[in-house]
Amino acid sequence: MTVGTERLSDQFQALRLFVQIARLGSFSKGARELRLSQPTASRIIAVLEEQLGVTLFARSTRALTLTDAGSAYLARVRPILESLEDAANEVRSTDDLRGTLRIAVASIIASRAIVPLLGGFAARHPHLKIELLIDDRRQDLIQDGIDVAIRFGKLPDSSAIARLIGRWPLVVAAAPAYLEAHGTPDTPEALADHAFVIAGPVAGRELLFRRGNREVSVQPQGQVAINGAEVAVSAVRAGLGIAVASLPAFAEDLDSGALVRLLPDWALDEIEAHALFASGQSVRPAARAFVDHLLQQLRADPG
User: Fold this and answer.
1) CB 207 within 8 A of CB 223
2) Is residue 150 included in any domain, yes or no?
3) Domain that holds residue 217
4) Could you give the number of structural domains in the chain?
5) CB atoms within 10 A of CB 246
6) Of 62, 80, 98, which residue sits at a domain end?
């Protein structure tokens, strides 16, 4: 190996280490990712900071965070490293993906839809690191370094690339204990006398029920509002009220009897699920392979 090649290899290692430390928020974890000792990792980053003339990390006894200069550098360096990984993945077998895949998904969809389908994908790509970023807010794909986001509901006006995954009906459900205490509504109009757990597709909107040529509009009211879907379903199981959600969100509890589906003869709108990729960037091979896997599994088991 020539001196120039050694320097390029060292620089590449320093950049990979910098990105891993920034991603994991830890020198020791970043060092382990690249099979380095922590003193070696600290020395490499010190040399990189000296070359750049800036401090990349703000260190304290409690946390390791990026400085403003570190954040700016990460925003430029990470896409370069990802492009190199993607170039290697393009020429490898599609069954030998490497690097890191970052997937953003809401909590309830992660636990009830994504994780059960993840095992086969992970087994097929043993060298690919998979990060599930669980958050019920809608993250910024570029700023948060997300390769693909799985989102339910109406998409905001955006230049992001979207791929439809599926459509599921909205359903109304409540816990048996709630129904025993407050009665079971047998018409949409009767929902006006019941408390809703305000969350997800119910928040701030009317519900339009349809049966044959008849339509009934209902404005849910409730004492409890929750911005986390998984917690909202827990609140419904605890008997705090009726809720509306996509069928996949309720399926497990409906099957077990923990929740009861209400007004099954009335139809609500369907809700769409999309895979979103950041605009202005090519879709990474690992992200494309993951969504292909997801679609294949959903076609095999639409429920």
Assistant:
1) no
2) no
3) 167-270
4) 2
5) 26
6) 80
Using alpha carbons only, how large is the chain's radius of gyration in Å? 24
Report angle CA 262, 266, 268 to the nearest 5 degrees. Answer: 95
Q: Of the residues 80, 113, 147, which one is the last residue of a structural domain? A: 80
Q: 3-class DSSP state for residue 292?
A: helix
Residue entry with tokens 């599921």: 168
Q: What is the pTM of this model?
A: 0.67
Q: Where are the beta strands (DSSP E) in 112-175?
A: 128-134, 148-152, 161-174
What are 133's strand-pairing partners?
104
pLDDT < 50 stretches in the chain: 1-5
Q: pLDDT tens digits, residue range 107-141?
A: 777 877 788 888 889 998 888 889 888 877 777 77
Cα torsion 68, 284, 274, 197: sign? negative
CB 103 within 8 A of CB 114: yes
| Owner of token pair 């693909």 | 148
**What is the spatial distance between Cα 30 and Cα 13, in angstroms, rounded to a whole number?**
12
* N-terminal to C-terminal alpha carbon distance within the chain: 55
Domain of 180, CATH number, reads: 3.40.190.290
CATH number at residue 53: 1.10.10.10
Indicate the burial class of 26 (C-beta count within 10 angstroms; 0-12, 13-18, 19 or more): middle
In a domain, 144, yes or no: no
